[in-house]
Each structure stands twice: as structure tokens, then as C-alpha cells.
Amino acid sequence: MMFGLARTWPAKPMLRHYRDGTWHGVTWSAFGRMAASCARHLRAAGVAAGDRVVICAENRPEYPIAETALMAIRAIPVPTYTTNTVADHVHILRDSGARAAIVSSPALAAKLREAGAELAGLDLLVVMDPGAEAADTVAWATLVADDRPPDDIALEASGIPPGALACLIYTSGTGGAPKGVMLPHRCILSNCRGAFSLVKPLMLEDEIYLSYLPLSHSYEHTVGQFFVLSLGTEIVYCRGVEHLAADLLAIRPTLMTAVPRVLEVIRGRVLAQVARQTPRRQALFQHALTLGLRRIAGERLGLADRIMDVVLDRLVRAKVRARFGGRLKVAMSGGARLDPEVGRFFLALGLPIMQGYGQTEAGPVISANPPEAIHIETVGRVLDGVELRLAEDGEILVRGDLVMDGYWGHPAETAAVIRDGWLHTGDIGALDAAGYLRITDRKKDMIVLSGGENVSPAKIEGMLMAEPEIAQAVVAGDGRSGLTALLVPAEGQDEVTVAVAVNRTNMRLSVTERIRRQAVVPPFTIENGLLTPTQKIRRLMVLRANAAVLAQLHA
Q1: End-to-end Cα distance, the chain
Q2: Would you kindly state where each structural domain of the chain is located, as residue ranges?
Q3: Residue 349 and residue 320 in contact, taking contact as beta carbons nearer than 8 Å
């Protein structure tokens, strides 16, 4: 696919990145040449079919070039996070058996070198950034220096069967040690085909996608890389999540992916800004939001309301859309549960949010909301080519080309989740009459109170984090008489405001679901190991880290 598109669109812009104070572009033809050159040099350096090769780099053009090169010679890329510790790298090197790595910087090279030294060492270490070459490293520039046409490598790649292993993507480790998910080419292509039929009504010429989620995560790896490229969309690599707001304004993307945490943060900032405005402006914003909510709920507006809706769209909603650059057609939300209230907030302000659902073991996309018929409280309908059914206990089972081959080196765990061809997702769900899927909980995360009541922590945590005073939340109480919560205040908030937010949430919950006691705790971050690189909270790690606090709450 990649080399075919390079032939089809030789002069079309493909990748853009920021370096030395300005933006630089890569065309499809330049990509094809560099990927082929990289493939030839990697093979000459000893990389053979079946070899696992770690890629550890920020989102940048070298990433898809390296991946395509490795796949073309049937080596197996192993994307890993730049935030990994040496111990994390040791685990992945040991588990995958990788003896080679391609990294972006000397600092990351040092980490991989140290991790490799704890095992059998690395046979090959490639560094993308120039100027800091070491005796045991190969400079990226030498790999892409070959100016020959890509025809020989493209021809070789065209013979790869759909069932051949494309890559190993490691799970985020929210439920234990990360496992290598074996994704064959058919998985990624199945996602591309299914997602294409979904977004086809939106597609025009010259789409621009802003990539900021790490490419080592299956969501961005498939959707934000191979899928958007299959559409001919230009990918612009964000300078870093700390520059996201500025890059949205500078790049003005038409498409983007989002994790719920990013949407929650942006919503919080919008509401905080509105709270600082005059009473008249606050009233206008609230009116625009109310009319938008009525419209997306399917309510017919009278003539006066329709006129006012158009006026408020220009006065209020356009300013919120401008935060995303003003041209955004859709944001595809995935990676974690999006609270419906947050989703409706953006829909009411004219920003389509296509919430979807999936997991690394399924390519990763299983379902998504169609842009023309969004039911934000659901995760949409299954993609074309996906079979889905619900087990007796409500567990979601999936079958089709999108299902992984298994976990690398873990046949017993593979057999536990793939039975009779069906992937057992571990998620509990329900289907409505229109075929929309609703996720109700994680099978393993369900809290069972001492009275036997089953409670969904995900639902309550989502409601708590939708409150502007609360940034992060983890609910506990398994085996106890009632629920407790570990809460991280939003910026500028304190225990008192957090308690007020908990009371507001409790009023919308059943007696069993209400928070009895809560404690304010330090933030959950990537650095302290309580947050994954894609901003998902590691619930079990949070509970363990705050065991003493929980003991006091339950005393």
C-alpha cells in the first residue's frame, strides 16, 4: 500500500515536521525513495526477515520511513514509548527478543544501550539525530542516502502475504506487564478498509491531520498513521503535546484523533475562560450551549430559536472552534471512555466528536460513530468486516481480519482471550436497536461491594472527571460497604471545591454508586508510573500507591 501510494502521488505532500525554526515537508516520492534506501541498508547491516527491531522515537517522518522499510524486508518493528524507563526497555527487549533498535536521539540511544547491556547486548543501534555519533551506533543519514528508485523493494513488498506478521505493539500495561500483540498486515488493512467506508462522506481534497498521540500506541499507529495516509491525507507532526494548542492554530487541521483526557482539559479551559467573562457573555455562551444541546437531542427548534442559533454560532461557537484551528471536520475520540457530557459539550458547540472503541488486540478499531449520525453516549457501530456478539454475561466478542494472531511468546494467555476464533475483549457492553454499541464496564474492573452489589467504577470516574474541579479520579471499594474515591483537583482547586463537585455527582447517582468518603491525592503522571503515555490511568497502580490513604478512608 505504502509504495503503491508513493507511485500514485509522487508530488503530493505526505509528512510535515518542525525543525530548526521552520516546517519541512516530505513528498510521497521522497518517502518511497528513503524507505527503500533504509530497507536495503538495514538488510546489509544484518537485519533479516523475522528479526524484531525496536523503534523508539517521537512522532516524526523517520518513524513511518523506518517502519515501512522494516516491514518491506519482513522484519518486525516493535514501537516503544520514548517515556519508557530502562527497566521498561529491558522487559520489551527480553520479551520480544529484539537485538536491534532505531532511536531518535543520543539520550534514547543511551537508554537502549543500557537496557541491552543487561541482556545479550544490541547488534545494531541506529540514531536519527545527527551530530552525536558513537562507535556503536549507525547514523540515520547513511541509511537513507541511496538515491536509487524504490522499484526493487516495492516489488519485494508486494509479495508479502496478508497473514504475515507486520509489527509487535505492546499493551499499555494498565493490567500488568505489557504484552506484545502480534498484528499481521491483514489487521491494519482491515481497519483501514472499515474506517474508510465510515469517513468517506467527509473526505475532500487536501485533508490535513495533526499527529500528537505517540505512534507507539496502537490507536495512533493504525489510525493516525497508516489509515490517514491511505486517504492521501498529509500528516503534520505536532512539536509536542505542550505545543498542541499553538500547533492547532498554526496548522489548522481538518482531522485529528483525541483521547478523552485532552477533550476534558480543553473543555475545562473553555469553561474557566467563560467564568472570567462578563455576565452578558456568560449568558450568551450558556444560550449557545443550550440551543446546541437541544438540536443534537433531536428537538425541533422554533423560528426564533433557529435564527438565534445561527447568530450564536457566529458569536460564540465559532470562537470555540477556532481553538482547534477553525477547519476541523471531525475529531476521532478513542483510547478510553469519553464521558457523554463532555462529548455533548463539543457537539453542541459545533465540533463533531466521533467516539469509537477498540483495543490493541483488534487492530485496534472495532467500532465508531458515523459522522452523519453520532450517538455520543455510545461507541458507534462496528466497522465493515467486523463480527460482534455479546456473551451471556455481556462480554463483547469480536471476530474478523482485525483480530491479532496472539501475544508474542505467551500461548496460554493467547488461548485465554481467543477462543473458537472469537476475541474475548474483557469489556462488558450492550447493543441498541440501531446497532450502536454501548460499553458499560471492564469485566475485571467491576467493584463488588460487601452487600453483593456490582458497581461500575469507569462510569463514576468519568462523571467525577467531567466536573471542572476534578482532574483525575479513581474509585475504590471492592469488598467494602461503600465506595471511596482518590481525587486529584483541577488546577487552582482545593479540597473544599472537590467536595462540592463530589456532592453534585452523588446527586446524579444511585445510593449504591455514591461516594461515601474521598481523599485528595497527588497527580497521577507518566513519571510516577500512574498514567500511561496515552493518558490512561493505571487503576491498579494508583490503588497500590495509595493503599495507606485507602486504609484510612475505609477505617
Answers
A1: 60
A2: 2-160, 447-554
A3: yes
